[in-house]
Amino acid sequence: MKQSDYSVLVLTPATVRPAILGKTYRTFKELCLKNEKSFDIQAAVHVDAVGDPTRTMLDVFLVAQRHFNIAWVYKNYRPPHALSHAFYWLWKSAAESAFDYFFYLEDDWELLQPASLSRMISIMEKHDRLATLRLPFQPTAENHSKNWKHYFPYNGEYFECPEDDKPHIGWCGHPGLVRKEFIQETMEHLQPDYCPERQMKGFWGNDMSRVIMSWEYGVYGFPNQSKYVQDIGRKWRAEQNIIKQKDTSWRIK
């Protein structure tokens, strides 16, 4: 397949926070997800009816449309398990689509420096068992990328998740490129009413765990760099008294 043939679908679970989504999409469009001649980049957006009461779900769609061609949009007016349902819909849409790659991007991340989509795809093409290549949320060191308390060594191309860390943080929901086959395999075992980050672990001993453990995971970047992404939704969540539960779902305090 020629580089010019790659199509990439951005997968975004969103809430009614158009200003935050606008910053997320603007920074990623400027620094990574450019509609260059070599790529066909579109977006699928799932909008939940929670967030700013002075704005509407249509406002979110209009912001998204200013930055990307929208392949699909879904408006969820009754979101009891907002992120879980959004993720399930996006994953299912991706698994059944004709796109080559997918970029998972929740609505509240800012990209701080350029990230080469061409290089990310080249790495994925070279390593056919690499499921995801996400962007670092902490500065990288000379020989590793720190992911919470875990260290991913640099292999000359990307920071590679060690085998022992795959059950815990092989997959996570940070912004990054995702392989279609990985989405298709995990989709077969995904439940729509439970947090996907909790489901997609390798230590449960179930079918999903076996899928997770069969793939490799990586963090994009180079040694001795500042962080690429930062969470810009924390302040809003604090203002709304929304806290993270033990099952990693978000609920009003």
List the helices and strands and how they pair.
Blueprint: E1 6-16, H1 18-31, E2 39-51, H2 57-67, E3 69-76, H3 82-95, E4 101-104, E5 109-111, H4 117-126, E6 130-134, E7 144-147, E8 150-153, E9 159-160, H5 166-169, E10 176-179, H6 180-187, H7 196-199, H8 207-213, E11 216-219, E12 229-231, H9 234-239, E13 242-244, E14 250-252
Parallel strand pairs: 1-2, 1-4, 2-3, 6-11
Antiparallel strand pairs: 4-10, 5-12, 6-10, 7-8, 9-11, 13-14
Helix pairs in contact: 1-2, 3-6
3D structure, described in words:
It is a single chain. β1, α1 (18-31) and β2 (39-51) form a beta-alpha-beta unit. The chain has a single domain, classed as Spore Coat Polysaccharide Biosynthesis Protein SpsA, Chain A (Alpha-Beta Complex), CATH 3.90.550.10. The protein has an 8-stranded mixed beta sheet, sandwiched between helices. It is α/β, with parallel strands linked by helices and 253 residues long. The model has no long low-confidence stretch (mean pLDDT 92). It is built from 9 helices and 14 strands.
